[in-house]
Fold each of these.
Amino acid sequence: MSDLNQEMAERYKNNFLKEIEEQAEMGEWVKMCMQCGLCSGSCPTNFHSGWDHPPQEIFMLIRAGKREEVLNSEGMYMCTSCYNCYVRCPRKVPVTHVMHGIAEYAYRIGRAPKAQPTLHLSKTFWSNATKYGRVNEVQLTQSLYFKDGLGAGIKKGLEMKDVALGLVKAGRLNPMEALGMGHKCKDIKGIHAMLAKAEELEARNKAAKGKE
Amino acid sequence: MTSIVATNQTILVVGGGISGMTAALEAAETGKQVVLVEKNPYLGGRTVQLYRYFPKMCHPTCGLEINLRRLKANPRIQVLTLAEVTGITGGKGAYSVSVKLKPRYVNTNCTACGECGKAVQTEIADAFNYNLGKVKAAYLPSSMAYPQRYVIDPSIIGTPDAERAKAACKYDAVNLDDQEEVISLNAGAIVWATGWQPYDASKIVYYGYDRFPNVISNVEFERLADPHGPTGGRILRPSDGKEAKNIAFIQCAGSRDENHLRHCSRFCCMGSLKQTHYVQEKYGDAGKSTIYYIDIRAIDRFEDFYQKVKANPNVSFVKSKVARITEDKDGNPVCNGVNTEGYVRYANAHDLVVLALGMEPSVKGVEIPAEVMSDSSGFLMADPANAGIFGAGCATNALDVNRAVQSATAAALRAIQVVNKVARAEA
């Protein structure tokens, strides 16, 4: 993975903006930012210690070619997808999507931080949803509850037991999902084939860029 | 019936603000016949609602007085107030225009003595002061109003208040039977100078203009600073009437924003820089101004003005678009955001927040009864297919007074060329 990081750093030597524009989804919006700060001021996670660089600063760091600072930042993983920044941006920059795009790119080249909670959620959600073609809520909840160990998981589970029972009674939660049963999509093979194809196309598309 | 003399050699000017007055005067002073149509009961538009002008910090009444003297001295201009153009037919060199005249209920006998205003009891919102105060339903719109005649609000017609106004008048100037009428007139060329309106601040939801009484607009602040305004020139905040000494100015409130106004309104940076002078003037060193900005655009030759304000230790600048206004327990508005110079989060409480609202053309969304072209912000554009109607002033672009006057003079020249052709053809 870190080889890919090296390769990209070589390929886009001294042009981190171009690297982000070509490799990160929605990265082409970075140069549209006019540094007004409305996104950062609107961000609900801005009180969090992990919020080392607000979106506006990440945009500016990219344009200034500060590759290490950006890839070492946890800022983009702090996004909760509340879309405040997106709807308010005076330039209509899809800030939320750009943040996810940069985070995804950093992850792809092996530069994502270890044990980052939102990254963990994204990975868990993605593998869960793609496995069955729809979200298996029981397994998703389990893997999140037990993320910090068995004791913490049981404690959290007991805390939420009344909610869970209520959902089961109302027919909104199927306990059999724990065993991989419950609702699934009809053509799971088709979904897997489609995702594989999409991944292949995207990899080919991105690999071709920046090589002229 | 109102009688107006107008031919195909007449220039019709729609809008009696600074642009319309300028266009009308420039055309009339070259010998053309002009009809000037204004929807308010007075001339001068938004310019006369300002306390002072930048950059020389002089009072608009001064410039207005000069223009009014030119106007009164010129027999070629016919002024229609409380008038709106409702229809235009024909084409370049031969337009036929219908104009709706609203009743004023006060005729030319009026001496502006004010007895009717004293007699009437009903109060209405004071439109001249952006509804910050109340006026009697028989009122003179402003001390400089031209024509210097009272207006009786239609809401009291048919009530005992209207009778009281009539009874109080010693000059037989009150005519309660005044009726709305539609007149039609000819014109060879038309100058469309309908001006601008401040952007609707309540649409910028995160600034809470309609939720927090101490968040006001730049145009309202002009009225607060003006000795003829609702507070007698004292800068008192609306919630509790306390003197506002710590004032925040938020730039680009609506402007440069794809969700609101996509253009830069040009005048608002200078407007706020000017308004810091009001704070300094009223309170000296006790008055503090903070300008929150993306970039200061002191257009043209005004950089010097900006540098002087910047040198004032009582004015501070925060490079950041405020993201949200909240209110603390004392009713102070709090500006929340992240500073671009250092990316530091702030939450600053002020006595009063002034939103530097951008300029929206009055023609936006308004049906102009003729074919005209407009840009993506709604400002009128020169239309080669309709070469007899010309935009002027803020109907065509976001302009300050100086540029509006230049634009109006240009429009007058274009209109003159059209009627000159008509004159040659008719000769």
Note: Residues 188-208 of chain A form the longest helix (21 residues).
Amino acid sequence: MTDKKEFWRWKEYRWHDETMDWKNADIISTGVDIGSVSSQAVILVDGKLYAFSNQRTGSDSPESANQAINWAMENTGMTLDDIHYSVGTGYGRVNVPFADKAITEIACHARGGNFMYGPSVRTILDMGGQDCKAIRCDEKGKVEAFLMNDKCAAGTGRGMEVFADLLSVPIEEVGELSLSVEEEPEPVSSTCVVFAKSEASALLREGWPKHKVLAAYCAAMAHRIVTLLERIDVQRDFAITGGIAKNSGVVKRLEKELGLEALKSTYDSQIAGALGGALFARALETKRRKS
Amino acid sequence: MASQAVLDQETFETFRNWRLNRAQYAKEWKQRTGGRVMGYFCTYAPEELMYAAGILPVRILGSHEVQDVTEPHIFAMFCPFCRDCLAQGLKGRFDYLDGIMIAQSCLHIRQTFTSWQKHIPIDYSYYLPMPHHVQSRRATPFLTKELEVFKDSLEKWLGKTIDERAIDDAIEVYNRNRRLLWRVYELRKGDRPPLTGEEAMEVVLSSQMVDKQDHNAALEGLLAQLSKREPARPTGTRLMILGSENDDMEFIRMVESFDATFVIDDHCTGTRYFWNDVELDGNRLHNIADRYVKRVPCPTKDWPERTRVRHVLELAEAYGVQGAIVIQQKFCDPHELDIPALTRALNNAGIKTLFLEFDVTVPIGQFKVRVEAFLEMLQEDDLF
């Protein structure tokens, strides 16, 4: 029997800036975002992005945090002792063993989004693994208002993973494939992951091709997120963070329904939370030195 | 002299015991006084009149436990509070009640009342048609007449008349309780309130469960202790909580586990219950009626003018509120209708708000991240 292919499994990876020398740095700060699905560690050297890692969260949050930071530091010569201040964020924020402080992912995404997309950003949509947040912030990246989806995982990364698996389409290809339909189908009627999956199975039995089913699901997800965004009064500029930001099938449909284009960034959208944490860590270390 | 720790532990013990052992208290009260106990469903119930008749009025509240006994009797899209209350009756947790009554407020809690009437054997029940249009000049005369009818009904049930003097005494006891509670709340205006929101909730909830004379004596003692009490924790961000019924101690405790203190509320289980006195001037039933017509209103009665918005803003200013948590029981339409106006008014006054929808049990984990993020919004300016 062959191993079943895990279509939902996205690529874990790390990066560091080989041109940067951290040894003479004044402040080395880190943010570790332990999300429900993925974990990231970001290391800033004097406020500049030096290294990050992005991996799947395991069942043990402290272990995931250790793995994330160790992976980010791999081949850099850096150790935990070199880091001046660490902030934990995400649902596992209080379980980061080496963190000096825990800050919510809402504050961290706003701050990380501000760094990634610039000070013109006023509305940030974080589409995470198991929840979705609409955040309004000021020019410094401080939260002014926020809303979260309630009670269910509809419109989140976990739902998209379920669909990738159901249709045997690698998760990274879902977005583009869904956009290859000639005509947009009606969205699936439910965004509840379980009900939508049943509905999709029925559509497949009716003979719908995969890309059409994916288009119907991406459209339903986009619509659900737009209803959340409308409740917070979307202000320009608008940006998206989190894993689903990489899914063009959801993003393009969401932009169309909203009538607003999201800003583009060269940074990986998944590291926004950890990046915001590292920026808070830098501010906290500066404050600590002053006091 | 008692140490601060001992003082802290003992200060609120009486109130906490009353809240946790309310059935035992009521049963002992009946034995002690030979009186009857009346459960009521909404704070528009004219307790003075019942108390004057030698009755102990007690408020029916829920238990915040998941239950499956109300499904056949009340709609699932009626608010969780009214379902939770009915569940307590169906489970026999109010088996010491001799009667139940309601003064009309909302449809949902009235369904609890009528379902209770139908399915739980009880000696006496009474529906008081409290007017909705309390802003009408005809509201007080209307309610005065209704109170006369209610008084007749109570007299028939008890087989005795309720005399003027007993009504005067009852008004005196109730007004005293309101003034003492108000003095406790006044202490929360200070820079370092000597009690937390959780402790204040303990005090005000228990007042709806026990004989006001017992409660008054305990409040006198409490005030004496609070005047010399040093709070054991920093006040942090000064919060207001407002919305529908709220006796969710776990939620209050969770919020105050952060650097924040609730300094004031606008709940029918809190300030709306006791904020207004009965003013004595002529006919006593008229005075009582006037008190319930003019009290801080529940949203079911706050129209066409939304007077509560002004009241909430006044409270926020007087108590130095920095942020407000606006809650509503799921499916509570009257509060839902008021929330946009209240939120806008608070935001315009520079007070940020966090909206949360409550159910029988609240998802503490999910709410925790929202509360923490809300507090971060109000604090940490120096990190930007």
Note: Strands of chain A lie at 13-16, 28-34, 38-45, 48-56, 85-89, 101-102, 123-127, 132-137, 143-148, 238-241.
